[in-house]
Specification:
Blueprint (H helix, E strand, L loop, with lengths): L6 E7 L3 H13 L6 E9 L14 H35 L7 E7 L4 H11 L4 E5 L5 H6 L1 H9 L6 E4 L7 E5 L4 H14 L6 E9 L7 H29 L6 E8 L3 H12 L3 E5 L5 H7 L2 H8 L4 E5 L1
Parallel strand pairs: 1-2, 1-4, 2-3, 4-5, 6-7, 6-9, 7-8, 9-10
Antiparallel strand pairs: 5-10
Helix pairs in contact: 6-7, 8-10
Length: 312
């Protein structure tokens, strides 16, 4: 039997209930996958710059720096231990063994968002997982200068944003025929491989607006688009099966719509009690996608429960 490759995700912990929702989601989703491991990381605030200044000529100042820095570091370590122990206990209560996860205290350098991305990318994690409305993480990811730098980044690891606590083995894989859809399929196939009870729906929204007013044109449009997306859906199914997702657990769905694509994805998620949405990020740049409203951004803003995986 071929040995399965380990799957590693990094989960940002900040002491909020939303961060614990992310831990609980991953724990429930992948409890029965022996090669799935988690690293829980707490990023402590960076030390004030004044404590890092070098002034060898002022002995009193240097002594003050050493003393105050030691006090701050001790308090930071105590806080990190308390926050990480809470997350650790949650995993143990959910039936996880300690050999399948680790806790990490990382002294911050540039702020939680940039530090998290740095650690996730350089640690070669398969995904970065965050609670959707964390006290510090989510707000800093979606607001201010830190967000601008993240949006401008060329590539990142896949990001899983977890909302209100809700678990379902059903996964909606939203595709549009783009290269990023292929990457989303590849990521989903790798992560979901070997999970017997998973249910994956390969989902495409066939946008009819504003063609519904012209019958002949709308029928031609539907025929053309369907003929193009069906082979893509077949390819996606083939990729999933090859990765190790049971073929019997995969279905395909094309939804004709005169409405917003993101809205249709969310409506279907609610209708079918889907716990995870997987979607590729499109657009010429993250900045344009953020301000103009990409489908992935809209889905992320509209979803109320479960998780959204954003794949570049």
């Amino acid at each position: 039997m071929e040995k399965r490759v380990e799957k590693r995700v990094l989960i940002g912990i900040d002491g909020s209930s939303y961060a614990l929702n992310a831990v609980e989601y991953a724990a429930n989703m992948f409890k029965n996958d022996p090669v799935f491991t988690m690293s829980l990381i707490y990023i402590s605030p960076p030390l004030p710059p004044i404590l890092l200044e070098n002034n060898e000529e002022d002995a009193d100042f240097t002594n003050w720096q050493v003393n105050y820095r030691s006090r701050l570091e001790r308090k930071s370590q105590e806080k990190a231990k308390k926050i990480l122990d809470e997350a650790r206990q949650l995993l143990l209560d959910l039936g996880w063994t300690e050999n399948r996860f680790e806790t990490i205290h990382f002294p911050g350098r540039f702020g939680p968002a940039r530090d998290l991305f740095f650690y996730a990318e350089h640690g070669l994690f398969d995904a970065l997982v965050l609670g959707r409305r964390g006290v510090s993480l989510w707000e800093k990811l979606t607001m201010g200068s830190t967000a601008d730098k993240i949006i401008h980044a060329e590539k990142t690891v896949p990001i899983w944003m977890v909302g209100n606590s809700f678990f379902s083995p059903k996964v909606l894989l939203a595709i549009d025929g783009s290269e990023n859809s292929i990457r989303a399929v590849d990521h989903a196939g790798f992560i979901l491989s070997g999970i017997e009870n998973i249910e994956v729906t390969i989902f495409h929204v066939l946008t009819m607006y504003p063609l519904e007013e012209i019958k002949d044109l709308s029928e031609k449009w539907e025929k053309v688009v369907t003929s193009r997306i069906l082979p893509f859906m077949d390819k996606a199914e083939e990729m999933l099966v090859k990765a190790g997702v049971p073929a019997r657990n995969i279905r395909k769905k094309i939804k004709k719509s005169h409405k917003d694509v993101a809205g249709e994805i969310i409506n279907y998620q609610k209708q079918e009690n889907i716990g995870t949405i997987v979607i590729g990020r499109r657009g010429l740049s993250r900045l344009k996608a953020f301000f103009l409203g990409s489908v992935s951004t809209k889905v992320l803003n509209m979803v109320e429960r479960g998780a959204v995986w954003i794949v570049d």
